[in-house]
Amino acid sequence: MELLSLSAVELATAIREGKTTAVEAMKAVMERIDQTEGQYHCYVTVDREGALRRAEETQKKLEAGTLAGPLAGVPVAVKDNLCTEGMLTTCASKILENFVPTYSAEAVRNLERAGAVLIGKTNMDEFAMGSTTETSAYGVTRNPKDLEHVPGGSSGGSAAAVAAEECFFALGSDTGGSIRQPASFCGVVGMKPTYGTVSRYGLVAYGSSLDQIGPLCKTVEDCAVILEAISSYDSKDSTSMDRKDTDFSSALAEDVRGMRIGIPRDYFGEGLDPEVKTAVLAAAELLREAGAVVEEFDLSLVDYAIPTYYTIAAAEASSNLERFDGIKYGFRAEARGLHQMYKATRSQGFGSEVKRRIMLGSFVLSSGYYDAYYLKALRVKAMIKKAFDDAFSKYDCILGPTAPTTAPRLGESLADPIKMYLGDIYTISANLAGLPGICVPCGQDGKGLPIGLQLLGDCFQEKKLLRAAYTYEQLRKETAAGTGER
Amino acid sequence: MAKEYETVIGLEVHVELAARTKIFCGCSTAFGGSPNSHTCPVCTGMPGSLPVLNRKVLEYAVAVGLATNCNITRYCKFDRKNYFYPDNPQNYQISQLYLPICRDGWVEIETEGGTKKVGIHEIHMEEDAGKLIHDEWDDCTLVDYNRSGVPLIEIVSEPDMRNADEVIAYLEKLRLTIQYLGASDCKLQEGSMRADVNLSVRQKGTEEFGTRTEMKNLNSFRAIARAIEGERNRQIDLLEAGESVVQETRRWDDAKETSYAMRSKEDAQDYRYFPDPDLTPVSISDSFLEEIRARQPEMPEEKKKRYREEFDIPDYDIGIITGSKQMADIFEATVALGSQPKKVSNWLMVETLRLLKEKEMDPEDIRFSPENLARLIALTEDKAINSTVAKEVFEVMFEEDVDPEKYVEEKGLKMVSDEGALRKAVEEVIAANPQSVQDYRNGKEKAIGFLVGQTMKAMKGKADPGSVNRLLKELLS
Fold first, then answer.
1. pTM of the model
2. Between B430 and A374, residue with greater pLDDT
3. Nearest-CA distance A175 → chain B (Å)
4. Bridge partners of A171?
5. Protein fold of A3-234+255-305+375-483
6. Is A136 a catalytic residue?
7. CA B280 to CA A195: how far, in whole Å?
8. Contacts of residue A316 in chain B, CB cutoff 8 Å?
9. Residue A385 catalytic?
10. Smallest Cα–Cα separation from A162: which of A116, A106, A113, A122?
């Protein structure tokens, strides 16, 4: 049995059935990390000893019958902006180079309750600001499909670790597409649930009103099972929702008959790579053939999503990142006097993309500009939500590309930040409107780089997305088997 | 001729709420505790931590709003006030700018100048900051976050006050109202009530406001009165000298009776207020409001009215007793135990006030129980002790809340009711003081007082002066 190629659900089943153990699975992961991590650099921290110890403890509990979680014994990687008790949590920033939290994020605790075993912490864009994982203070992560290309971001380390089989699944966070876009670039499944579904307690905030935690994994089935495990109502998070419908794995049926799928014409215009367009439309055709009602429509306000997003996210970030000041934890620069210390710490501790967004956010919140920028952005956000409400009165799902292109080459994006920001065009609306979105692989371009299909749903309609995505995934597997492609 | 100036004053009053836990986490608000022992990831601003509103804080804020005739904002929000300082672990304070919980209220105050309404612009909820401790030995500064996240409300008045008397009356009114609600103990000295004074002057008769200053560090009513006087004079002097008042924050130094500028408006920070995305807006339901309304206790004015109807005690006494929640509570509880209202009122008005003044205590610090006061009153009613002994016992009770019955018993302070023993003592005093006896018999009525005193002395105070008087007159007739 080739352990590493198993999905999380398959591995959990094999462990439960005694065909392998949590320890063997973790050892296999460590071997793979030894072989490939030098090339890919998916992780900021690999907690080798801790991971093996945790795997042993989990195996003992499994054998004693005291642990029966759906992910029992499955090694997981967690993005480095999720707090892990006793384990370095850097947000890929120098300013948190020595920060060891005293508590774990609620989502991480939920995973531990489900039996998953933590491997370590994955690389990311600094404070989740970026689309390539190149803004990390600890070096870039490379795309396992092609080392010359980026894995996407900001959850690039998590997506790459799944693609490189350096873990069985991973957690990421998505503020403007940071789960879905790297999933697309690395050819894995990634999902951002409805805002409020997964507790944000312990997620180091970037844009608090937009941030959601979600899975990066190999299959849609894994996605449903992981999401089910991490979703919870949490009284420690005021924005957490008390949902009764988080039995997401019940949605895994291969059936889209009568499902109404809308394709926004606005998502297929200028700037979309023709190869991406072809692959995505082919996916839509497959779903239509399976019985879905697929039609094009006009989703308005698409052009306003990017400025709105960068105004709101930067504003919140400028305030959220104020706590990193050298006083209580993290990096402190030597300087004479309080204000000099603040300046030196933050100047040396933050990278340029983070500073850019702090400055942008401070500007849009400053007196005299607040109404013109921040308040206006909030109004546009409400209008975008309304546009989606209208769309979801007609459609069960909205289908389109996850990103306009496949993964760019390393070093291409940061030189032109505006262009990089424009790459978020298809993903950020879901964050502004609080919607769930899933990315499923739907082919590759001429260079062999993966292409991702994105499905968006109305708030709380993850099950519809999972059913459509699962159906597509199964159909594609059958088609690929027919043509010998994978 | 010198111009006549009018002082215009508005107040910002911070009140620490009586909630047992902090505004956004479950940490204790108890005073003291070793540094950083009442803290958690939330109130120390750890990465990833999130605030959750304490419902009790909302209840108190709404209760204060209702008691001060405010409109309650049915959809209110929290905002972040961004500024860097180490006592503030997130480097933003969670407060309310755009949609505060209460708006447009008023309270009525009474001064020698008559009664008037002082408008309340708004009341908002916010968190307190930590405390910086400067270590002189190590030349460093340490932070204690025990106070970080302690719940506060800020009550912002309209610029409706014109002199220190009105300011003090307004503060006393607020303090009394809030104490009645049990929302805070409102102690200025201990900082659970803090007032900043916004003051400007203008020529009498003009409508336009002058440039105002804000005065901080006012720790007592006396300091507030002095600071108002000082600032008024400073501003008038400036204007008379042809200079202008600078809009600035000033710190009052009560020992030197002077203030100095802390920061001017020019270097005022831009706080970049915006709605806190971590806290969902608070919707106040009808039922929540009704619940708070139903729970509102009887307020001072209603209590006064009721006392006038129910108890035959002077209006002045009613004013003093209802002027303190603790006094009113003791009064009512003692009366409920069967004591005569007038007697209870006398104990509070005379001996209690005397001892409070002597010991520099507030009525809120009274420790004796209504049960013991009722017992003491019963002892005097039954003539078991006389008034001199009663005062003695009360002093002990005031200090230690002793049971007067037991105390009188133990110390042997009971009056001698044995007629024979008393008669014997009187006879002895008559025999020993022939001159006074002669004086009395010659019509000098006052001489009897001396003989009563001598008898009381012989009885070591444990006799009823009335009985002594009666016996003397009987034996001398």
1. 0.90
2. A374
3. 13
4. A78, A215
5. Amidase signature (AS) enzymes (3.90.1300)
6. no
7. 13
8. 277
9. no
10. A122
